[in-house]
């Protein structure tokens, strides 16, 4: 979080889901998935925009991320920097005002390596908020909605050379003043949730207009907050549970497909197994938080996306923990997330440490040498990989990703499929880079190979078992 803030300050100064997550259609209800989400599989990934979008060695870092088992990367698209001037046609994904070359490169590079993206939209341009800082709301939410439409359309899979992005989220840590201000008015009354309501709706409506198949999370909430106006150097903030409750009172019918949460520990040395005090939200009370979100918004089984989590380490972080302990904590956190059927993704923040950064929780040291966590993270990520779906034993279709093939062939191209070495009729690769594979009954584990006309192949393993007796191995 602190690293991200520092990065945004510099930027202002200078100018993924697997079959276990698939939800489709314009609303928040699961519609077209051939199976329901089940515990034991996660989209596991990383967030580190400098390493993956801007550094000269970003291709190497993306290769290392793939080695670490990442199936998903989160990136923050700063509206202020992407649209520094007002577009002539804001819903046109290719309006000349938009500056998205680095995002285009990341989307393509991730697809080539079989990874999806989660795009978080944040940061209001001065032309949209009367010349104020990017943490201030747009004066007209329609401006944000139009930008979200353009972004989702650009990465809908409908435009050749622009791969599909199916996962979006609205703002970053809107319960903190550094990302959304003010949190309280001059009389000390809470206003942050009310300011966030039109932002969340604008992003949701805009993304769905640009790509109805995309999924949109709201929240992206920090794990803690003061819930009263602060004085001095401490920024105003809301706890995530109070922020969500107040948002539900402002807009009880707020549309969303998931709630995104950053369940960081209170301090690096605090284990993921330890409880945190409500209304803070950590790994240990995510289920309580999910149940509360259900109650507040009148929903059922709201999915939770863990979109930031980490433990900082010595020596670059003086208050960090030993790297060996970080590895154990990462394994515990991933395991706990996988055992919660609400949780559909887990993103680690960040990938590589930097001495000039504000967050030292990487899987790699500053010189790119691996910490012990790198190997642990890779082992667990590969075991939980949602690209190898875990389905109910009654499933007769598996939807599996073939993003690496979509990099080479356009949507609609017939691709060859074998199931346990037996050829099946060719199936088209979908616009989002996925394929539907027919399953034979009576099998526990199925190996699927998908091959494009150029000979590129991907292999996925599908496991089928009793949905009432899922075991996380």
- Work out the count of structural domains: 2
Q: So what's the overall shape?
A: globular
Instruction: Please tell me the CATH architecture of the largest domain by its name.
Output: Alpha-Beta Barrel
Roughly how much helix do the residues carry, as a percent range? 25-40%
The structural class is alpha/beta
Count the strands?
15
Query: How many helices?
Result: 13
CATH topology tier name of the largest domain: TIM Barrel
How are the elements arranged and paired?
Layout: H1 2-13, E1 43-47, H2 49-54, H3 58-67, E2 72-78, H4 79-82, H5 101-112, E3 116-122, H6 126-129, H7 141-154, E4 167-170, H8 192-210, E5 215-221, H9 240-250, E6 258-261, H10 286-297, E7 304-306, H11 323-338, E8 343-349, H12 372-384, E9 390-392, E10 397-401, H13 403-406, E11 414-419, E12 422-428, E13 434-438, E14 445-451, E15 457-465
Parallel strand pairs: 1-2, 1-8, 2-3, 3-4, 4-5, 5-6, 6-7, 7-8, 9-15
Antiparallel strand pairs: 10-13, 11-12, 11-14, 14-15
Helix pairs in contact: 7-8, 8-9, 9-10, 11-12
